[in-house]
Amino acid sequence: MIPRHDLLVGGFPCQDYSVATTLKRSGGIEGKKGVLWWQIYRIIAESRQKPKYLFLENVDRLLRSPAQQRGRDFALILASLSDLGYVVEWRVINAAEYGMPQRRRRTYILAYRKDTAIARATADAAEWILHTGTIAKAFPVHIKEDTVTTSFHINGALDEISAEFSTDKMKAKFENAGVMADRLVTTIATVPHYEGDHLLLGQLLLPEKDVPEAFFIPQKDLPKWEYLKGGKQEIRKSAEGYEYKYSEGSMAFPDALNKPSRTIITGEGGSGPSRFKHVVQTASGRYRRLTPIELERLNMFPDRHTEGVSDSRRAFLMGNALVTGIVEKIGIVLLHHIDTIK
């Protein structure tokens, strides 16, 4: 039995859309993880009284997944939420563009049951997206230069959308912000409007004396790290014996302390050399990985929030987590709207 609730919060698994997977290989909503979206759908549909509000999250790739039918997965989600009786707004937010310490882009989705005052307040969709909406109040934007507001309907049963969306018969594009009501989508390309302070990677680091020795990179291992972080143009051989040309660009080594960090990934833990793990240089000149506390700070968790499991597990958890400052700010505005919009 699903208990009665006003707000459903969730981040359905995103591996099928992850930036760690190419769009060509992405299984999208039909992949093993993507199908779990339908469990959220089931919870809503089977609730004795559908929750008034939904707050969901996924990677930014959701808006253009899968590769063969760009945007189909998001169209299915919007259409199914509309059929359940919700008005939906969304925005892709990069936390670093609003002063937070990590460059992490995610799609945030808010849905309002149609009989709520907030749902009725979205009637002027463009105004809601750009000025008066919950996400707009939390994270102000401007309309992107030389772009226009686009509107289109998502028509058909869900199986028809699955087969035909983003084909010549049903061509549409989701921008980084939008509103959907009664399957009518209004979407606008926006850019952040932020003039406040910025938290930087260097501001969140522990003093060198407080960092366990295990996080420092031995001098003998530095060439391995430098190779993995560096640019490459080389001939490699496949398992079947075929030769191919492999190339990739270089990455910053060490990571810049005067910028927000790169996105934390789930493979951040462990001492082995890696292209994607963060490495910083200390005041003494030594190179080291980030500690679990520093990874927590980059997601704006309290220090030692993940304490009680291994360091590698703590890093994995932070690679899967959100920048909590985003959720907090949206939640505060949502609560204010619930209290004030009548």
Please provide a brief summary of the model:
The protein is an alpha+beta fold and 342 residues long.
Query: In the CATH hierarchy, what is the architecture of the largest domain at level 2?
Result: 3-Layer(aba) Sandwich
Please indicate the count of domains: 2
User: How is the CATH topology of the largest domain named?
Assistant: Rossmann fold
The portion of residues assigned to helices is: 25-40%
So how many helices? 10
Average of per-residue pLDDT values: 92
- What integer value in Å does the Rg equal? 22 Å
How far do the termini sit from each other?
Answer: 31 Å
Strands of the widest sheet, in order across it, are 1-2-4-3-7-8-6
Main beta sheet strand tally, sense and closure = 7 strands, mixed
Low-confidence stretches: 15-23
State the shape.
globular
Strand elements, count: 13
Order of helices and strands: EHEHEEHHHEEHEEEHEEEEHHH
CATH class division of the largest domain = Alpha Beta
Structural class: alpha+beta
Beta fraction of the residues? 15-25%
What does this structure look like?
With 342 residues, the protein is of the alpha+beta class. It folds into 2 domains: 7-196 and 324-340, Rossmann fold (3-Layer(aba) Sandwich), CATH 3.40.50; 206-256 and 265-320, DNA Methylase, Chain A, domain 2. The chain has 10 helices and 13 strands. The strands form 4 sheets. It has a 7-stranded mixed sheet, sandwiched between helices. The longest helix has 17 residues, at 324-340. The radius of gyration is 22 Å and the shape is globular.
